Amino acid sequence: MPVTDQSAAQTEVTRRKFYVAMIYGLWSLIAAALSIPAAIYLLIPPKLRKMPEWVEAGDVSQLEPRVPVEMVFRQNRVDGWKIQSEKTTAWVVKLSDGQVVAYGPQCTHLGCAYHWDDNRNDFLCPCHTSIFGVDGAVISGPAPRPLDRYETKVENGRLLLGPLHQSKEKA
Amino acid sequence: MSWLDHRTGIETAIRNFLYEDIPASSGWHQVFGSIAVFLFLVQAFTGALLAFNYAPTPGDAYNSLRYILTEVAGGHLIRGLHHWGASMLIVVVVLHMTQVFLYGAYKKPREATWMVGVVLLLLTMAYGLTGYLLPWDNRAYWGSVVATQIASHIPLVGPYMSRLLGGEGAIGVVTFARFYGLHVLLLPPATGVLIATHIYLVRKHGVAPAPGDEVKSVKKFYPQQAFKDTVAIFAAFVVLFVMAAAVRVPLERLADPTDTTYIPRPDWYFLFLFQTLKFFDGPLAVVGSVILPALAVLALLLAPFVDRGQVLRVTRRTAAFGIVALALAGWAGLTVAAIATTPKPDNTVAIDYGAPTDWIGLSPQELAGVGYFRKENCASCHSLEGKPSVGPDLASVPIKKSAAWMIAHFKHPAAMVPGSSMPAIQLSDAQLNALAAFLLKLTPRNAEALSNAPDFALQAALLYQAKSCGSCHQANGVGMKIGPPLNGLARRRTRTWVAQHFANPEALSPGSFMPPYRFSQREMDNLVAYLFTLPD
Q1: Which of B71, B166, B186, B306 could bridge to B175 as Cys pair (CB 3.0-4.6 Å)?
Q2: For A47, which residue in chain B has the nearest alpha carbon?
Q3: Could you tell me which of B362, B393, B333, B324 has the C-alpha nearest to residue B461?
């Protein structure tokens, strides 16, 4: 009887389609249930344990205007499951308007340590010769933005540093 | 043929794999092997993820695991998957073996497939043994002490075994490194090779047919059996995922080799072995620790050579069912006996270090404030998590009022905030002071971590305040320094000493003018446990 044969074959095809759809569907669900948590685990930054506190960098009462000084201080940094106490430096300078600013110690190009060149009166990065003015602005070289600045406040002549901020302006 | 297949042959290989001929009798009873392979891959995947945030040395392991559990997004789930996946893998591997055993599927010519499977079972257990140490909490440390001691008592090779495991004398950095190395470097490739061998042998001999089925027409693995395997794997995965998400795996306190009160227990699947040890004393101990387990493994390995008759229908293999029932009863009996004889740990003074424990840094006064907050049911009107509530959220906006203002407000709410419907709080000034001190400490970041302080600590802090311990002692930087500071007490004294000291200070510290205190057993447990949580 060709009719029943045909319907049996039809059923077989439907069943096969169902199996294949289920195989793909269930494996997709498993893959999603494993890969989404994995992506969250790896990509979402961990909860920060503490707000960064103000750190004392040193005495700025004797600072001469427009002469940067490298200040070295200890700072606690949350590093994964540890809190590291590490030596940090900041270039501190009193600008013409009397404002005291503190620059992060790394060149904004690729993170090399720059230094103050007394002869040129500029900040000079030895890696790719980026040059920054005393106000942190890029004078020449590949640096993409001015020097990063710490949040600062001065209490009784002592300089307190907050978090380091990237400058928004372009070079 | 596609471009890729022409170059690599990958599509043909996959097709050959999926369109394997299997007996027409194949079905749901043969899904366990696939689940086991799947779970092994889940373990490898979650294990690698854990390793990305885990430092495998005793100094850092515990802290990095705490970091995974309390700070890394999704860390709890990943660790849960790895932890429960391990248990589930053991269950599934045993079910797989049981099925093969019941059906007599290990008979000629499939003996080698079975024997490789037995080795894979042992490897699965080796993961459990080595992985147990890695959290480096008290449970891990003491459980592994027992395991390495057993290994060192094996006749002849015992000393070499303990040298290999680095467990000579005590468990330390060397043992830890060896366990970690085994767990992540040696066992996984060994398992991979053996699984490949196992599957190769299954393919070589074909899936075992039911008796009488040998001549019947065969079917293809794909898609019908592949569908059944997929559904079974999915079901197992759902169970695993729900357990990982819902069942907390507690992290105990940091491994303490000097803790004489700890009752070591292995993971549940080793409890039957642990219980067996209790039946053999003195020189016979080796029977329970080595000889019986070795005989059991030997019996498993040789099973296909002992049971050599014609393959029978599974329903007619009564002896096999008898053996499985006997093994199950023996295992269950030993496990239940082990659980029954385990002294109940005092959970009321246990801290789950898998959750944030910032409350440990609070002063006793502030902690008592948490106690009043809970006792006065403040949370019924004031949210701490930014949820909508009747009264203002106390954590999301920093409180800018003084403690004096808050105390006045607690006493006469409407007088300070006109129109407030808050009822006056009936507490003494000192108690209101504590409540204000806690509320002033709240930030959105720490609200959850501070308010999840366990009950025993709150009770202890309330007692501490009631007895004015702070008039003589300093705790977490608050209090007078007439008596010794209480931070670091856990390092200096034992719990028993502290409890006896409360009853009669003069007897234990001659010259002390601390008055004696009488506490109920509950109060004493709470207070001593709390004092021992104070950080160094």
Answers
A1: B166
A2: B71
A3: B362
ipTM over 0.90: no
E strand or H helix at A72? strand A69-79
- Whose CA is closest to B356, among B83, B50, B69? B69
10 Å CB burial of residue A64 (0-12, 13-18, 19+) is exposed
Contact B121, B93 (CB under 8 A): yes
User: Does A41 reach chain B within 8 Å, measured CB to CB?
Assistant: yes
pLDDT, tens digit (0-9, with 9 covering 90-100), for B5-35: 999 999 999 999 999 888 888 889 999 999 9
Domains of chain B, residue spans: 3-270
Contact A78/B at CB under 8 A: no
CA neighbor of B272 nearest in space, from B186, B356, B334, B327: B334
Q: What's at B105, amino acid-wise?
A: A
Whole-number Å distance between alpha carbons of B287 and B242: 40
Q: What is the architecture, at CATH level 2, of domain B3-270?
A: Up-down Bundle (1.20)
Alpha-carbon dihedral B87, B92, B97, B101, rounded to 10 degrees: 120
Chains A, B: CB contacts under 8 A, how many?
71
Element (DSSP H or E) covering residue A132: strand A131-132
Residue A30 forms contact with B (CB below 8 Å): yes
* B219, B21 Cβ separation under 8 angstroms: yes
Question: Digits of tens for pLDDT over chain A (171 positions)?
Answer: 455 678 888 888 899 999 999 999 999 999 999 999 999 999 998 876 665 678 888 888 888 888 899 999 888 888 888 888 888 899 999 888 888 999 999 999 999 999 999 888 999 999 999 999 999 999 999 999 999 999 898 888 889 988 888 877 665
Encode burial over B86-123: b for 16+ CB neighbours within 10 A, e otherwise. bebbbebbbbbbebbbbbbbbbeebbebbbbbbbbbeb
